[in-house]
Amino acid sequence: xxxxxxxxxxxxxxxxxxxxxxxxxxxxxxxxxxxxxxxxxxxxxxxxxxxxxxxxxxxxxxxxxxxxxxxxxxxxxxxxxxxxxxxxxxxxxxxxxxxxxx
Length: 102
What we know:
By secondary structure, the protein is mostly helical. The chain has one domain (13-98): Orthogonal Bundle (Annexin V, domain 1). Helices cover 57% and strands 8% of the residues. It contains 4 helices and 3 strands; from the N terminus they run H-E-H-H-H-E-E. The protein has helices at residues 13-31, 36-49, 53-67, 71-80; strands at residues 34-35, 86-88, 96-98. A 3-stranded antiparallel β-sheet has the order 1-2-3. A hairpin with a 7-residue loop joins strand 2 (86-88) and strand 3. The radius of gyration is 13 Å and the shape is globular. 25% of the residues are buried.
């Protein structure tokens, strides 16, 4: 990882940690995959900190520019998946949703 995470100086230390946790979860969804429920819980906390859709989109764009990872694609899959599903975007950008077999 050779990039920085977007955040606001207006946030508390805990809020910054929780937003970074969200973006780290996006990375994990791309690189290894993650359980839908865990991603949804982290996303809900992110939305408590960033309730504005325009600010959310700005942070997504900033993060994607830095990392190449689309937070939007991950959250779209999370919202479409069922409980128990494993979310994995993969290096090619291909989406894979389903039960983890290993």
